[in-house]
Design goal:
- This is Methyltransferase.
- One of its GO terms (molecular function) is methyltransferase activity.
- InterPro entries: SAM-dependent_MTases_sf (IPR029063).
- By secondary structure, the chain is of the alpha/beta class.
- It has a single domain (4-158), classed as Rossmann fold, CATH 3.40.50.150.
- The chain contains three helices and nine strands.
- It has helices at residues 85-90, 98-111, 129-135; strands spanning 4-6, 23-27, 31-36, 44-49, 53-54, 67-72, 112-123, 142-146, 152-158.
- Strands 5-2-1-6-7-9-8 form a seven-stranded mixed sheet. Strands 3-4 form a two-stranded antiparallel sheet.
- The two termini are 20 Å apart.
């Protein structure tokens, strides 16, 4: 069995090895997108979301304590229209987002082995880090914020 689970893998953007042999890539979406992007030479950016397992991170099809590491990079946007490239690329949370983040986090901890690590990436553009931590029933060990393209923070939790 593979040891790492990425539950909201999207197009695997932050992975150096997008086909890492010890990782199960999961996402609720499975699609190819062509998005207008003036930053690309062609004017169109192609995004492929092709998970190994198509699953919602609030209902994972894995047994308890299966993985040694779980990575969560859930949708973080509340605002944006159906044609927004950000929404197409990253997904969008409903206005009643709190139960989704809470339940998804609890589910990820369920499939994580004891004494193992959960890595959580959050972008606080629409929902503050404090607000998201208030709905998660676990405390991070540490984290690192960056403002490269917004207000992203990486946090590490241990079960």
């Amino acid at each position: 069995m593979k040891r790492i689970l990425d539950v909201c893998c999207g197009s695997r953007m932050f992975w150096f090895n997008k086909t890492h042999k010890d990782t199960v890539f999961a996402d609720v979406r499975n699609c190819s997108l062509a998005i207008k992007d003036s930053g690309c030479a062609s004017g169109i950016r192609h995004i492929i979301i092709s998970p190994d397992v198509q699953a919602d991170f609030v209902h994972l099809p894995f047994a308890d304590e299966t993985f040694s590491m779980v990575v969560i990079d859930p949708p973080h946007l509340l605002h944006g229209g159906k044609n927004s490239w950000m929404v197409k690329k990253y997904g969008k949370l409903p206005m009643q987002w709190k139960h989704i983040i809470h339940d998804g986090f609890v589910e990820c901890m369920r499939v994580l082995k004891k004494n193992s690590i959960l890595v959580f990436k959050w972008s606080a553009n629409d929902i503050s880090t404090k607000a998201v931590l208030d709905v998660i029933p676990f405390n991070p060990l540490f984290g690192h914020p960056t403002k490269r393209h917004g207000h992203t923070i990486w946090m590490v939790f241990m079960k």
